[in-house]
Amino acid sequence: MRVRRRAQALVIAMALGLTPLLSASPASAGEVWNYPEFPYQPTTYTEAYRGQFHFSSQQGWMNDPNGLVYANGEYHFFYQHNPHGLAWDTMHWGHATSKDLVHWTQKPIALEPDVHPGTLFSGGGVVDKDNTSGLKTGADDPIVVFANTDGVSVYYSNDNGRTFQAYDKGRKRITIPVQSRDPKVAWDAAHKQWVMVVWSENDADNHGNGVEIYTSPNLLDWTHSSRYSAEWLFECPDLFQVPVDGDPNRKKWVLTTASGKYVVGDFDGTGFHADNPTPQPMDYGTAYAGGTFYAAETFQNAPDGRVVQMAWQGGNVGTTWTGNATFPAQLGLISTPEGLRITRTPVDELSSLASGGKTWKKQNVKEGGANPFKGVRADTYELSATVDVSKSTARKIAFGLHVRSDDTADRTVVYDKAAGTLDGHPVGLENGKLKLRLLVDRGQLEVFADGGTYSLSDNVNFDSGADSQGIRLYAEGGTAKLDSAVFRRLDSSWGTGQSTLDTDLGDRWNAVSGNWTDVSGGKQGRGSGNGFYLSTRTAADGVYQGDVSLGTAQAAGLTFRANDKGEGYTANIDKEGKVKLWRPGRDIATYNTPVTADSTHHLKVTTEGSRIRVFLDNGTAPVIDATDDAYTGGRYGANVFNGTATLQNLNTGGAGLDAFPTAKWAPTGGNWTTAADGLHGSSSGDGFYLSERTGEDFTYEGDLSVTNGAATGLTFRANDKGEGYTATLDTKGQVKLWRPGKDLATHDTAITEGRTYHVKVRAEGDRIRVWLGDDAAPVIDTTDATYGSGRFGVNAYNGNVIAQHLRIS
After folding, report:
1. What is the pTM of this model?
2. pLDDT at residue number 496
3. Cα(323)–Cα(461) distance, integer angstroms
4. Of 13, 75, 352, 546, which one's alpha carbon is 20 to 30 angstroms from that of 152?
């Protein structure tokens, strides 16, 4: 969706008395070599008006939900996003994940301008479980998303949303000659095909609304099937199936638009046919861009066949963010005398936040009489109530929310008996009873009634002050009969998960001492003395490894066999120039080596009983081999001492860089880390990661991938600066053998970002041959005598890369 609301967002913020802390300057595009970006400042999510169980971006502007999928055990919520300001500008795709639709973790940027080509406006996503696209390269099911304007481009991820590549360099797979945007894709099981709807103007003169409908067997090649025209159908369409009356064998298709209007019908494989062309409202919130319910989208591939939806609420503005999402609602489709109608119900997982409940039964609430909820005070909560309207004489029955001692309230929900309306909108009764459910958050109110056929999403700036947390039920013009009511406090959903720390030790870590925050390079710790960040995972013997970058810290490293205070063993690097193994009260062993601030060192520890070995920078021989039996088991963690340091890739087990034996490796340009899947490098120009192993004549081979960017390669016969030969994979479409100042030979072939290629080099005197994949014949066979021997390494150029399974023979 396309909106420009910089001025509006700032006006709203000022009207609320908020001072925008983010710059209003235009958002910046990304650089491919340091993708993915994590541009967020730390927050505790406790700011005024920040929803405690409604998702909002950690920082910046958000609007439409995009590409909602359940993939590889997680819900992925992507969204239109300007991470650098409080107003719409230079759209990115933000990203958050959740195991349960309740506890969300902010992740790095998913799609980034200048990294991913095309207009990164709103779009949809799917999980290609059967690999119909052929894009799968690893163990994870591909996440495939769609965006762009006046046509559609495809982007995909094979690492569960951590990084995305643009298919075919982002060239449009569909071109639409009129204004169009917002593709959404669903699986059409009956016809064994994918179906896409894209909003477009009707003709070249930009008159009329509707959706173009396309079908595809593989998500990449699309055929235009039909057009569904309707004036109400403007922006952000969604097309999905819902069981009728809960029967999984009887499903209908639902077509929605950004305003929340919808029609129900059938899809015959080429066209959508509505049962009734008159649209119905899905929610009674303000249905315009920047309102309280807009651009809703459903999750694809949700477990148990559930249809779960989230929408954009643009009216929520805070000091560092603009916009939030509605709480996830499960959709149903029920038969009514007026026809099939959508129901919206908060997902059951909401109960995981509930605490401190209270119930009421059979209360008569008279005009001017006692308030049954007197004494109940809460900031964020759920209130369910059943009012017997048929036995109530009151003209109006009202629920005051965040009520003060003078009975004024921040928001009042009113049922008008004569009009049969709730907050001014028609609502149905069940056997003469109004069944109401309210979700009250710091900046959000959601109202559900009549089995979910009534839904109203609102943004309300609730005052969280101690004198503004009351609840009041009152009647006007008679008596209200309250059958029952249930109150539950709802705790905060924030504070779980790891945003940027890659680890196999789970999400449950806690800062024992020091200050620990998420940064693009991992988990950053700051301490005036020792600071510890500990996992809940414990062990006695095993392997523990990770990357350490000192920054301003005196020392930082890996903690293991620790108690809840961090007392255990720590293997660290110290800027004085050493690796040290220590425990409280004793330095067990040290190893002297150059240590440079801001360079990244990889530490690995193996423990077997009292024997502890420490390995440095992927070396195959330990730099420390010591014994100590003070601690026999305990927690894994990270340590920082006297300053700021960053730790990343904290993993157990033997995964990591699989490479030939060498004493150690050292970087020359770029940033190099060791993740579970191998060596990761990123560099804006040429960066090298060089081993201490040297050779003259040999065979050198390995698996290489350009995650995003330009090139990677095997470097050999190199000096300490990386000057030597490099056999490069270039995503412009070639294999190249080069040395400083000269390209020796090239071979044209497609090199795709995100794909892994096996490269083999054989050097014999001045003859150098390069093989790609399993081909018997080399793709390059040339001669050059400039470098006769030197070091082995890996190269990264203007991008981020992965290297693994490096062998020398």
Report:
1. 0.95
2. 82
3. 13
4. 75
